[in-house]
Design goal:
Number of strands: 11
Structural class: alpha/beta
Number of helices: 11
CATH architecture of the largest domain: 3-Layer(aba) Sandwich
CATH class of the largest domain: Alpha Beta
Order of helices and strands: HHEEHEHEHEEEHEHHEHEHEH
Number of domains: 2
CATH topology of the largest domain: Rossmann fold
């Protein structure tokens, strides 16, 4: 149930076009739908400004299809993260409107394009090419959440001139999501150069002592550049949501 749909129902009641009882029937599935194995949060978009996002890993294709059908039927955009290609193929046979983004392992059905209401653009910066899958999860989620998004990839500290050559573009961003594996140094560098919020995403990219992203995570948590926000390993979605909320601070998203 989207905000626009609820507003439409209330306006029709106010205008006397439908009865309160009929409106209650339309609203009966709020605040959540219970499927047994999943409880779909129909109020998420109303509370937070973005819809509930489905974590595809660990769910069967049949479960994702059943959840997806309910989400799409409610008029809400469907976003599925960590959706493996073979599972995506099975889901798409039923949810034919789904667009699959293989570089981000993300599927989406857009029923209503999100309105861009942020202060400016969110820039996604990746340290290496190997970090792009996580960076793309962040970028596509940020776009689906209603942000203008820019990308700057493969500008890690091993060749810092690649970053400094693009500082003019970087400074235009309102919020930066910086994605890095290995030792995770890039967010510290970016945060030390700018007066904008930086959301750091450690990735599981790296050799043995990277410990699947733990080295990058600890490096980002211990950043000597103050004010860096750090999300979990490979959590591009979480970074996109944090950056979206930062980009909307002080903006009334309910204003007409």
């Amino acid at each position: 149930m989207t905000e626009a749909r609820i507003r439409e129902i209330l306006e029709r009641v106010a205008a006397g076009k439908v009865t309160a009882a009929a409106a209650m029937r339309d609203l009966r599935e709020l605040p959540f739908q219970d499927l047994g194995y999943a409880k779909l949060d129909g109020h998420r978009a109303l509370r937070r400004g973005v819809p509930e996002v489905v974590f595809g890993e660990g769910k069967t294709a049949a479960q994702i299809v059943a959840i997806g059908k309910r989400v799409v039927a409610s008029g809400t955009n469907l976003i599925v993260t960590r959706l493996a290609p073979e599972k995506a193929r099975a889901v798409k046979k039923v949810l034919r409107a789904m667009t699959y983004h293989p570089e981000a392992s993300l599927g989406a059905v857009v029923k209503e394009p999100a309105r861009a209401i942020g202060h400016g653009e969110i820039m996604i910066v990746s340290a290496g090419t190997s970090d792009i899958p996580v960076a793309e999860e962040a970028a596509i989620c940020a776009e689906l959440f209603g942000n203008r998004v820019a990308r700057l990839y493969d500008v890690g500290v091993a060749g810092i001139h690649r970053l400094t050559a693009n500082l003019k573009a970087v400074r235009r961003a309102s919020v930066l999501i910086v994605v890095a594996g290995m030792e995770g140094a890039l967010p510290s560098v970016v945060a030390g150069l700018l007066d904008k919020p930086v959301v750091a995403v450690p990735t599981s990219v790296g050799y043995g002592t990277a410990f699947g992203g733990i080295a990058a995570l600890l490096g980002m948590l211990n950043s000597c550049a103050s004010g860096v926000t750090v999300v979990n390993i490979d959590n591009g979605f979480g970074a996109a949501l944090a950056a979206t909320l930062m980009n909307r601070i002080g903006i009334d998203r309910d204003a007409d």
